Amino acid sequence: MVTIKEIEYESLGALNKLYDELIGHPTNPQKLEATFRTIQADSRYILLGAFVDGELLGSMMGIVCQDLVGECRPFMVIENVVVSSRSRRQGLGKKLIAALEAIAHERDCYYIMFVSGEKRKEAHIFYEAMGYREEKVEGYRKHLSSH
């Protein structure tokens, strides 16, 4: 049985294993815990997990950002999308995105955006199947430090 819910402290070890799959190395556990506690206290952050029979097998984070243009409606940024390699194509990502989209609607977000590395072709097929379209915009990122 699949359950989509906010990730709690007890699942940080399992979340770190998912992040290892996502970025190719584990996250510093002390920094993960400290940052988790910070975002857990901030209602703009939504850290969802897909649990299968109690085991965390997928996660994504949504951040609600305020905007100052037009009708000043917020928008959502999605980050850290990951489903365990042993659980892909089972609908976990679809359920996670649907849950974040429902929250974005509840909070009157105007749109949802995210970036994805150009080499993640399989993920791009999934995003397009979920109704996301590549827009003709340029994405830029500047890494500020290596540590």
Structure description:
Residues 2-147 form the N-acetyltransferase domain. GO terms for molecular function: glucosamine 6-phosphate N-acetyltransferase activity. This is Acetyltransferase (GNAT) family protein. It comes from Paenibacillus jilunlii. Keywords: Transferase. With 147 residues, the protein is an alpha+beta fold. The chain has a single domain (2-130), classed as Gcn5-related N-acetyltransferase (GNAT) (Aminopeptidase). It has four helices and five strands; from the N terminus they run βααβββαβα. Strands 1-2-3-4-5 form a five-stranded mixed sheet. Strand 2 and strand 3 (55-65) form a beta hairpin. It starts with a strand and ends in an 18-residue tail after the last helix. The model has no long low-confidence stretch (mean pLDDT 87).
Strand content: 15-25%
Helix content: 25-40%
Give the overall shape, derived from the CA principal axes: globular
C-alpha Rg (nearest Å): 15 Å
Low-confidence stretches: none
The assigned CATH architecture is 3-Layer(aba) Sandwich
Distance between the termini: 39 Å
Mean pLDDT: 87
> Major beta sheet, specifics?
5 strands, mixed
Strand sequence of the main sheet, in spatial order?
1-2-3-4-5
CATH topology: Aminopeptidase
CATH uppermost class: Alpha Beta
Query: Could you give the order of the helices and strands?
Result: EHHEEEHEH
Q: How many domain units?
A: 1
- Which oligomeric form is depicted? single chain
